[in-house]
UniProtKB/TrEMBL annotation, chain A:
One of its GO terms (biological process) is plasma membrane bounded cell projection assembly. One of its GO terms (molecular function) is GTP binding. It comes from Certhia brachydactyla. SUPFAM superfamilies: P-loop containing nucleoside triphosphate hydrolases (SSF52540). One of its GO terms (cellular component) is recycling endosome membrane. It catalyses: GTP + H2O = GDP + phosphate + H(+). This is Ras-related protein Rab-17.
From TrEMBL, chain B:
The keyword Coiled coil applies. Residues 159-194 form a coiled coil. Residues 24-35 have a biased composition (Basic and acidic residues). It comes from Certhia brachydactyla. This is TBC12 protein.
Length: 211, 525
């Protein structure tokens, strides 16, 4: 599943290291870049609208593994959709972000989910639904229950966040890591099946890279 | 040493001189800061003291960074404020120990002499190589180095210790002087360069206004004009030259702009009246409607050049930018508002009157390359990327292979660069210079600039992996200078086995038509 996997073959004592591509999707101005910026730099500021894609990296040293996140932060406008597949292909995780103070953005997140379901098999990608801007509680248009319920029926991770007030931003990414690592373990327990799919993935043009 | 003036006065004089020089140079170039043609609407006649609005307008026209502008402005203001202060106590409190002006005699020279008298050693001036002639001031921070005698209540130093301390002191003084002289030279050099730059702009402006603009059609393609153009347009004629170069194929008149603007305003009004009913759960259509609506523009306007503080809500250019973009979406509903446009419109607004900015905006976006991108026509975009790669490989084969080894395709960085015509990726003054030549050479120059950037950072990029290259290129260093970038751009050859950009692009388009069936425009998955 991860593009760079040294698990199994890693020298004894060292935890395995994984590189995961995480893509941020959602309507414009819901706070995709701000979430990434908060997570990676732990700061909040007025960010320019993203044109195309911008990139962040984050390395997590966990007990069980070293995880390197490559965060692809995409442009939110619907007009960019025809180039968006350039960005989310080969992703291992996706954050579908909406603005809790704007109901339309949840509908858009649902459309993103449909798109992802067409392109990925359920076990190929970890998807989290993220309701951002909890600091705008007074203008809330989407209840927590509504988001939660939708995520539950679709089998998505769910969390409400605020990049501005640093509410649960780290937790979203941690939840994703946990889920990804859980899947790595499951995969390791049935090596034959997945050994093959990994080879296919590489052969079909996944980026080659050195460790 | 006696030939040198006393340190503090000497220094402040020079400092003042340089500030005065600055003021003089600013005055000289003042005409080019004046608004051209007319003034922005609702702008008051220029009062003696610049109000913020006017200052901002000038920034835009000057095309230089906002910060720089303010530094300059403060310079002139401060000169006046400082003058009286200089007489009493120049900024010498820094070192605490130095007495204020009333006791001025005890300046560094005198301290030095006292020290020499006390120690019975003559201070030897540093060798001539370290001290060039024509330095009309004495270094300053050496005055902070005062070697006091040991207090009487303490035992005397041993002879070796005293000797060593003296020697160390001498070394420190010599070192500090050397450093100060070096810095002073650097400062003077920067001043000279700025002065020269301003002179160049002023003289270029005269040529543009008196010779080129009156004979535009006859002269625009001459070698002399093209060379002058490459050097960068003087800010006062920049908007005018852009307008002329972009042209008005669409025959838009200011009246037509007003018509589309009033249409946009009607829609805003009706939108704000019905917005409460719009919150229906239904996804597809209503979201698309909302996207197409003018509401989206609002979200981006305040995020356009936020560091300038002029496009944000309540800022002087907020409504202007809103108007130009709104009118455009009514004029070209087939294109609509696309993220990235706000930056292009903003750069135009900073250099042109409202209606002229709109005319240039609409015509600029009507160029084939811009139309392909703003319609997000992916197959056309791929053609542009492919043409770019032809010249990439030709000019920077090593880096090209490096990118290839990571399957790093140009879309990763070119989408941002091309959509915003570099106005978001490069410092604003530098982006304006890219626009200058883009207006002269067309789309080809956008891709040439991209290759120039890659060339400029080739060595760094060769050390990076996929994600770091992507990160680097989508957020370029802020200290990028026009001299360096333009020398790299100049070194990029837009020739591929005798084929120029247009020919390479045309042949790619032809391939596409012939092999339409074989090569689906869809990207590799």
């Amino acid at each position: 599943m991860a593009q760079t996997v040294t698990s199994g073959t890693s020298p004894e004592g060292l935890p395995p290291s994984y590189t995961y591509k995480v893509v941020l999707l959602g309507s414009m101005s819901v706070g995709k870049s701000s979430l990434a910026y908060r997570y990676v730099r732990n700061d909040f500021r007025e960010l320019l609208p993203t044109v195309g894609c911008s990139f962040f990296t984050q390395i997590l040293q966990l007990d069980e593994a070293t995880v390197k996140f490559e965060i692809w932060d995409t442009a939110g406008q619907e007009k960019y959709q025809s180039v968006c597949h350039l960005y989310y292909r080969d992703a291992q995780a996706a954050l579908l972000v909406y603005d809790i103070a704007n109901k339309q953005t949840l509908s858009r997140a649902k459309l993103w989910l449909e798109e992802m379901e067409k392109r990925f098999l359920p076990d190929e990608i970890v998807i989290a639904l993220v309701g951002n801007k909890t600091d705008l509680a007074a203008e809330r248009e989407v209840t927590t229950e509504e988001g939660e319920e939708f995520a539950r029926t679709k089998g998505l991770l769910f969390m409400e966040t605020s990049a501005k007030s640093n509410h649960q931003v780290n937790d979203v990414f941690m939840a994703i890591v946990q889920e990804l690592l859980k899947r790595e373990k499951e995969k390791a327990s049935k090596p034959f099946l997945h050994g093959r799919s990994t080879v296919e993935l590489r052969a079909s043009g996944a980026r080659m890279r050195c460790c | 040493p006696a030939a040198l003036p006393s340190a503090p006065l000497g220094f402040t004089d020079v400092n003042l001189n340089s500030r005065n020089t600055y003021e003089v140079s600013r005055r000289r170039s003042a005409p080019e800061h004046l608004p051209h043609g007319g003034t922005a609407p609702a702008e008051p006649a220029p009062p003696p003291q610049e109000p913020a609005e006017r200052a901002r307008h000038r920034v835009g026209i000057a095309g230089s960074s906002f910060a720089e502008f303010f530094t300059r402005n403060f310079f002139t203001k401060r000169t006046k404020e400082l003058k009286p202060a200089v007489q009493s106590a120049p900024g010498w409190k820094l070192f605490g120990k130095v007495p204020p002006r009333e006791n001025l005699p005890k300046d560094s020279k005198i301290i030095q002499q006292e020290y020499e008298a006390r120690t019975g050693r003559m201070y030897k001036p540093p060798p001539p190589s370290a001290r060039r002639k024509n330095i009309e001031f004495e270094p300053l921070s050496t005055t902070a180095l005062i070697l006091e005698d040991r207090p009487a209540n303490l035992p005397a130093k041993s002879v070796e210790e005293a000797l060593r301390h003296r020697q160390e002191y001498d070394e420190m003084v010599a070192e500090a002087k050397k450093r100060e002289i070096k810095e002073a030279h650097k400062r003077k050099k920067i001043m000279r360069e700025r002065f020269k730059q301003e002179e160049n702009i002023a003289s270029a402006m005269v040529i543009w206004v008196n010779e080129i603009l009156p004979n535009w059609e006859g002269m625009r393609a001459t070698r002399r004009v093209r060379e002058l153009w490459w050097q960068g347009l003087p800010p006062s004629v920049r908007g005018k030259v852009w307008s002329l170069a972009v042209g008005n194929e669409l025959n838009i008149t200011p009246e037509l702009y007003e018509i589309f603007l009033s249409r946009a305003k009607e829609r805003w009004k009706s939108f704000s009246e019905t917005s409460s009913e719009n919150d229906v759960e239904d996804a597809g259509a209503s979201v698309a409607d909302r996207e197409a609506s003018l509401e989206l523009i609002k979200l981006d306007i305040s995020r356009t050049f936020p560091s300038l503080y002029i496009f944000q809500k309540g800022g002087p250019y907020h409504d202007l930018l809103h108007s130009v973009l709104g009118a455009y979406t009514c004029y070209r509903p087939d294109v609509g508002y696309v993220q990235g446009m706000s930056f292009i419109a903003a750069v135009l607004i900073l250099n042109l009157e409202e209606a002229d900015a709109f005319i240039a905006f609409a015509n600029l976006l009507n160029k084939p390359c811009q139309l392909a991108f703003f319609r997000v026509d992916h197959s056309m975009m791929l053609k542009y990327f492919a043409a770019f790669e032809v010249f990439f490989e030709e000019n920077l084969p090593k880096l090209f292979l490096h990118f290839k080894s990571y399957s790093l395709t140009p879309d990763i960085y070119l989408i941002d660069w091309i959509f915003t015509l570099y106005s978001k990726s490069l410092p604003l003054d530098l982006a304006c210079r890219v626009w200058d030549v883009f207006c002269r050479d067309g789309e080809e120059f956008l891709f040439r600039t991209g290759l120039g950037i890659l060339r400029l950072y080739e060595d760094i990029l060769l050390q990076m992996d996929f994600i770091h290259i992507a990160q680097f290129l989508t957020k370029l260093p802020e200290d990028i200078t026009s001299e360096k970038l333009f020398s790299c751009i100049a070194a990029i050859q837009m020739q591929n086995s005798n084929k120029k950009w247009a020919q390479v692009f045309a042949s790619l388009m032809k391939d596409n038509k012939e092999g339409d069936k074989n090569h689906s425009p869809a990207p590799k998955t």
